[in-house]
Design brief:
The chain is built from five helices and four strands, in the order βαβαβαβαα. By secondary structure, the protein is of the alpha/beta class. Strand 3, helix 3 and strand 4 form a beta-alpha-beta unit.
Length: about 160
């Protein structure tokens, strides 16, 4: 099954969705449509843009196909885990990976975190205090100080 690749650029917001939606709907008329959206050049995406991507993915699934996102820009990446329904859309780091549906190119939570080295011992957790700092301090002379700070000179 061959996929159709469409590159989106610029704004994916309330004012532009009305012009993009008919084009995307026209690409989903075939049985089992496979659509790859190159969204690397999308500079701004709002809730309407994210909802458009979710609805297009739903329409593609209803017809037995799928929508894949390729090289999502930071504007799109910010919606991948936040917008309802976006987690069901496969996102790939490259257009080639999206075309081939290469699982090694898939983006996800495990891909966004840096790899941890298992050979190095784990660092102990940093000691935290309830108010962000210890209540009692010791000054360089070794004498304890009250919580109020050094004693004021007597008059």
């Amino acid at each position: 099954m061959s996929a159709v690749v469409l590159a989106l650029h610029g704004l994916l917001v309330d004012g532009t969705v009305a012009t993009i939606e008919p084009v995307l709907a026209g690409l989903l008329v075939a049985d089992e449509p496979s659509l790859v959206l190159d969204v690397s050049q999308v500079t701004v995406c709002d809730t309407t843009g994210a909802a458009l991507l979710v609805s297009v993915a739903g329409r593609a699934r209803d017809r037995g196909g799928e929508l894949r996102l390729a090289a999502p820009s930071p504007a799109i990446r910010s919606w991948l885990t936040v917008a309802p329904g976006m987690s069901g859309i496969a996102a790939f780091s490259t257009v080639e990976g999206a075309l081939e549906a290469d699982p090694r190119d898939l983006l996800g939570e495990h891909r966004d975190r840096p790899a941890e080295c298992v050979d190095e011992p784990a660092q102990p957790p940093a000691r935290t205090f309830p108010h962000g700092r210890p209540r009692w301090r010791v000054n360089p002379s070794g004498r304890a100080r009250s919580r109020r700070g050094p004693a004021s000179p007597r008059r």
